[in-house]
Design a protein that fits this description.
single chain; two-stranded antiparallel ribbon; 388 residues; 6-stranded parallel β-sheet; alpha/beta
């Protein structure tokens, strides 16, 4: 067993914690405050609360509101330029996974003296250039429970010209605020998509070949909480206990990615949503999941691990790895996402071969941690079985 434990982010967790932000010693004096190009944080009051808390802490801020779902090179470059032009010395992200991912990348690239964003992307056609300057410090305020980005060093960037969606490693956040009250207004379908993203972060880590006991602790805790509380959060959006438990599971899954890793399921989904930016990441993962995990169960890659996951999802007498597939299918149905179709998001069967190849090209490192080797033919078969 071996792992690296480097989780320095201070986390303010719990209902109402956004109101504590102004009491913190923030890591700069002028923030680039990053939000999405949507309306939610303006309408639910989260933006106003955050602005008040920054003022309370004695910080100026410049608002940047151009981050879209599956954030692009252009979205992030605009933020980088805005931060530089206004002399911002730290970054604050307020939003869901797309915003938090973008902030990780923006904070990392702003201080670099040479090169543009894509020069520093480590996979695919990215320049694979090393970051020569330390990242700006940054604060993550999550309004959703899905990516775990508030406690990990990873962001994701999409190049719309090449249709590549690739992970980008920056620095760890300085401070995170996980306030479940900010999640009460998330619609049911996105609550489900985000919850399954968190679930698969933990499941992938738990079956990966870099699994370890530190990861097990986070992963099983997250899987148990999501199995019990995600359906409640989906169907009873104002259930604060359910929202809190799902948020906790999400943060645990963020820790999972730091002491362990995601596997090739995420590479496959990033290729899907790289080609179709209207596809929510969590929805793509759901559509892949049964065929993906079914492949490794058929290969008997780690039978005992799948049995443990089935038990964590509530099948107390699970004794076969296939029990995990039964439990997962039921959870997806209970959350109203059991009938998602790739074709509803514009994906066609004739592009699956290209998507399978792009997944390995852009994020080949995730294939290295799979519990058993996954060939391009295997990946294509998983995509075909998932297609409808």
């Amino acid at each position: 067993m071996s792992y690296i434990w480097n989780l320095p982010t201070k986390v303010l967790f719990g209902p109402g914690m956004l109101q504590k932000l102004g009491d913190e010693k923030l890591p700069g004096k002028k923030a680039l405050l990053v939000i999405s190009n949507g309306k939610s944080v303006r309408e639910n009051g989260a933006l106003e609360q955050t602005q008040q808390q920054l003022s309370k802490a004695g910080c100026e801020y410049v608002l940047y509101d151009q981050i879209q779902a599956n954030p692009t090179v252009e979205n992030m470059t605009g933020g980088i330029e805005t931060a530089r032009e206004n002399g911002c010395d730290f970054v604050v992200g307020l939003g869901g996974g797309s915003v938090l991912d973008a902030v990780t990348v923006i904070a990392a690239v702003v201080p670099q003296k040479e090169g543009v964003l894509w020069d520093f992307v480590p996979g695919g056609s990215g320049g694979k250039k090393e970051l020569s300057e330390p990242s700006l410090p940054y604060v993550e305020i999550t309004t959703s429970a899905g990516t775990g980005s508030e406690v990990d060093a990873w962001g994701v960037v999409t190049n719309t010209k090449t249709k590549e969606k690739i992970g980008f490693k920056g620095a760890m956040p300085t401070l995170a605020v996980v306030d479940p009250e900010l999640m009460l207004s998330v619609p049911p379908n996105f609550t489900a998509y985000q919850g399954f993203d968190a679930l698969f972060h933990s499941v992938e880590g738990f079956i990966s070949n870099v699994r370890n006991e530190a990861g097990d602790m986070f992963q099983l805790t997250a899987v148990k909480a999501l199995g019990k509380y995600l359906p409640l959060a989906v169907h009873q959006g104002d259930n604060l206990e359910a929202r809190t438990q799902v948020a906790f599971a999400n943060t645990m899954s963020g820790y999972s990615m730091e002491v362990c890793s995601c596997s090739s399921e995420h590479a496959l989904e990033h290729a899907l949503s790289g080609h179709h930016d209207n596809l929510p990441h969590g929805a793509g993962l759901v559509m892949l999941s049964l065929a993906y995990y079914g492949h490794f169960i058929k290969e008997h890659a780690c039978d005992d691990r799948f049995i443990a996951l089935a038990r964590a999802l509530g099948v107390c007498d699970a004794c076969r790895p296939e029990d995990f597939l039964v439990a997962l299918k039921k959870l997806e149905e209970d959350c109203g996402v059991g009938d998602l179709k790739m074709s509803d998001f514009g994906i066609t069967e004739d592009e699956l071969e290209t998507i399978a190849k792009d997944a390995r090209y852009t994020m080949t490192g995730l294939y290295a941690v799979d519990p058993a080797p996954l060939t391009d033919e295997d990946a294509l078969e998983i995509l075909r079985k998932s297609f409808k």
